[in-house]
Specification:
The complex is a heterodimer of chains A (336) and B (323).
Chain A: E1 10-14, H1 15-29, E2 33-37, H2 53-61, E3 62-64, H3 69-81, E4 85-89, H4 100-107, H5 110-113, E5 123-128, H6 143-147, E6 153-155, H7 160-172, E7 177-182, E8 189-193, E9 205-208, E10 213-217, H8 221-234, E11 239-243, E12 246-248, H9 252-262, E13 265-272, H10 277-287, E14 299-303, H11 312-318, H12 322-335
Parallel strand pairs in A: 2-3, 2-4, 4-5, 5-7, 6-7, 10-11, 10-13, 13-14
Antiparallel strand pairs in A: 1-8, 6-12, 9-11
Helix pairs in contact in A: 1-7, 3-4, 8-12
Chain B: H1 7-32, H2 48-54, E1 62-64, H3 70-75, H4 80-87, H5 121-134, E2 141-146, H6 153-164, E3 169-175, E4 178-179, E5 182-183, H7 184-187, E6 204-208, H8 212-227, E7 233-238, H9 256-263, H10 267-274, H11 281-304
Helix pairs in contact in B: 1-2, 1-11, 2-8, 4-11, 5-6
């Protein structure tokens, strides 16, 4: 497959197309890889991500399942233990709540509990986030749940290229990897390499460089932070924008280095503030040598501590928007 | 296969049951004397189920096990030394002291692991069956679980997936009458747990779980169906655990008379009577002695091994990438 591809070629793909391309290339490359999930076959996935893969790889390897999240994830754990490389799609990340025993008590712990005698090389993909009017049971950002569990790796791709590259790395990984895609990103386009190029797990991406403050953002907040940074630049404030990309493993070194240079940190997440992952990043910053370089308290801009509401104006109010990031960043720089 | 008529098979069956019994009596004793920590779940009285079931399996077949899993391990051929070392928190244990009694797996014998979560192994067994099917393999997966598992959602979901995809899985329910203190009579409206099979469109059969022959016959039939691509079967083996649920059990939920009546149906004593025409008294005594000696040797070896080391604890959480 790789032989016919130009290693330097990139095309513009949507985030959903990039995920599909990674799935297809992984299945071509390794016959142990197979997909299972609700409506991933003929339907093409609830968000159209798996698309035509069932026609290319057949119903055995692009396997429709009953609505049975605990069973699906358990079957993936068992298949992985028996030598396969299953990729599960959970239709909405909220539904992982139905499968938590298999994710947290089984997949995450088996390698450790068994003293390294077995591995669970599986990937669980699930779309998260708000913005579609789907309300409280279909809109959550649950990354902190997974990041809290040793044994899981947690990935949050923010661009089409990363959606492909991080997923390929996740499929290669001998551990269970949770890949949290964002529904609002599925239709966003960007350059994506044609070749199956891996993006290593555990490398924070510096999306923009500026000397006045460091904005750390995940998921859909990365593009909002970049948009905010442009507005801030017009106001004379130069922001660095960092995208950790993987929460476990976390490349905190790059974050600490940036905050050391700028002296200010604004941490932006869609998830509710309490117990959220940006609290962890804040702690890593203040525990580090960057502490002595801080010119301002570390600031967090997060979703409200509420379930995601239905009405569009309420839903919008519940999570950070571009103008909120501009306001918080501007205040942080002007006040301190 | 008749387990009683052929001397070699009869000896193997008896030796397996005695080894499970002696192993668990030994750990019970070590625990009582403060020489073993943590907790454990003993299957004394239930030895006929793993002994009879595992004799229906070949090399390469898989099992999933439970928190009460010493018997499955032993019947599948696990190393007693490594099991005992794990329970004694030694570096040479199956899990290097990281898992203990509830998490012993033995990849070499296809044992995908005991499980501390009731019914946790059931969807995992379906997944292993799916792996076999995708590879066009001939292996079979036996999933052991107790009566308590049959009311868990994971059990329903795992059995259903195996049923709709005709996966090569045999679901073996060790109905020992209690999920901790909750009796089967209170936890189920059905009379026999095997009736649940009808809900998934698969065969279900109830057998005497204190008779290794009955267990073996039912599991062999189910294994045959599974290998032939005819899908899963539910085998309910009715048995009884003599000891408490775990180390904290005061047996307040059952009577001395009930326990005594089941001890009179001791599967090992029954099997010894059944093989009296095949094995001599001396043969039978040799099986017992061999089991006792193997367990003693396992304790000696484990005690001489180094304690589990905390040095590499955080390094052990993730498997290293092979790419």
């Amino acid at each position: 497959m790789t032989a016919v591809l130009d290693a330097t070629s990139t095309r513009t793909l949507t985030y959903a197309e990039a995920v599909r391309e990674a799935l297809g290339q992984a299945m071509e490359d390794d016959e142990r890889v197979f997909l299972l999930g609700e409506d991933v076959g003929t339907y093409g996935g609830a968000f159209g991500v798996t698309g035509d893969l069932v026609h290319r790889f057949g119903e055995e390897r692009v396997r429709d399942t009953p609505i049975s999240e605990l069973g699906i994830v358990g079957a993936a754990v068992g298949a992985a233990l028996a030598g396969m490389r299953p990729i599960v799609e959970i239709q909405f990340s909220d539904f992982t709540a139905q499968a938590m025993d298999q994710i947290v008590n089984q997949a995450a712990k088996i390698h450790f509990m068994l003293g390294g005698a077995a591995t669970v090389p599986m990937v669980l993909r699930a779309p998260g986030g708000s913005g579609t009017g789907a309300a409280a049971q279909h809109s959550q950002s649950l990354e902190a749940w997974f990041a809290h569990v040793p044994g899981l790796k947690v990935v949050m791709p923010a661009t089409p290229a990363d959606a492909k590259g991080l997923l390929l790395a996740a499929i290669d990984d001998p551990n269970p990897v949770i890949v949290l895609e964002h529904k609002l990103l599925y239709k966003q386009s960007g350059p994506v390499p044609e070749v199956p190029e891996r993006v290593r797990l555990g490398e924070t991406a510096v999306r923009r460089t500026g000397g006045d403050l460091t904005i750390v953002a995940t998921g859909v907040m990365v593009s909002r932070a970049l948009e905010a940074a442009e507005t801030l630049a017009a106001q004379g404030i130069q922001a660095s924008v960092l995208d950790p990309r993987t929460l476990r493993p976390l490349d905190d070194r790059t974050i600490v280095d940036s905050v050391t240079a700028t002296g200010r940190a604004l941490l932006v997440q869609e998830a509710p503030k309490t117990g959220g992952f940006m609290g962890e990043i804040a702690a890593r910053i203040v525990e580090s040598s960057a502490f002595g370089h801080l010119r301002a308290p570390v600031a967090r801009l997060c979703g409200l501590d509420v379930p995601i509401p239905y009405a569009p104006q309420l839903e919008r109010a519940a999570v950070p928007q571009v103008e909120d990031i501009v306001r918080e960043a501007s205040e942080l720089v002007k006040r301190w | 296969m008749d387990l009683t008529k052929d001397a070699a098979v009869a000896r193997e069956t008896l030796r397996t049951m005695w080894t499970i019994r002696r192993f668990e009596e030994a750990v019970d004793d070590l625990f009582a004397r403060g020489l073993m920590h943590g907790t454990m779940h003993l299957s004394i009285g239930q030895e006929a189920v793993p002994a009879g079931a595992c004799l229906a399996l070949r090399e390469g077949d898989y099992i999933t096990s439970t928190h009460r899993g010493h018997g499955h391990c032993i019947a599948r051929g696990a190393e007693l030394d490594a099991m005992m070392a794990e329970l004694l928190a030694k570096e040479t244990g199956y899990c290097r002291g990281r898992g203990g009694s509830m998490h012993i797996a033995d990849v070499a014998t296809g044992n995908l692991g005991a499980n501390g979560i009731v019914a946790g192994g059931v969807p995992i067994a379906a997944g292993a069956g799916l792996a076999v099917k995708l590879r066009r393999g001939e292996q079979v997966v036996v999933s052991f679980f107790g009566d308590g598992a049959v009311n868990e959602g994971a059990w329903h979901e795992g059995v259903n997936l195996a049923a709709i995809w005709d996966l090569p899985v045999v679901f073996v329910c060790e109905n020992n009458h209690y999920g901790m203190s909750m009796s089967v009579g209170k936890a189920f409206k059905v009379q026999r747990l095997a009736e649940r099979a009808a809900a998934y469109g698969i065969p279900g059969v109830t057998v005497d779980g204190n008779d290794p022959q009955a267990v073996h016959d039912a599991v062999s039939d189910a294994v045959h169906r599974a290998r032939a691509g005819q899908g899963p079967t539910l085998v309910e083996a009715v048995t009884y655990r003599w000891k408490g649920h775990s180390k904290s059990d005061k047996n307040l939920y059952r009577t001395r008379e009930e326990i005594e009546s089941w001890r009179e149906q001791d599967p090992i004593a029954r099997f010894e009577r059944a093989v009296a025409g095949t094995l001599s008294e001396v043969d039978i005594a040799a099986c017992r002695d061999e089991a006792r000696e193997r367990v003693r040797e396992a304790i000696r070896t484990a005690n001489a091994a180094p304690d589990a080391s905390a040095d590499s604890l955080t390094d052990a959480v993730y498997a290293r990438s092979d790419r």
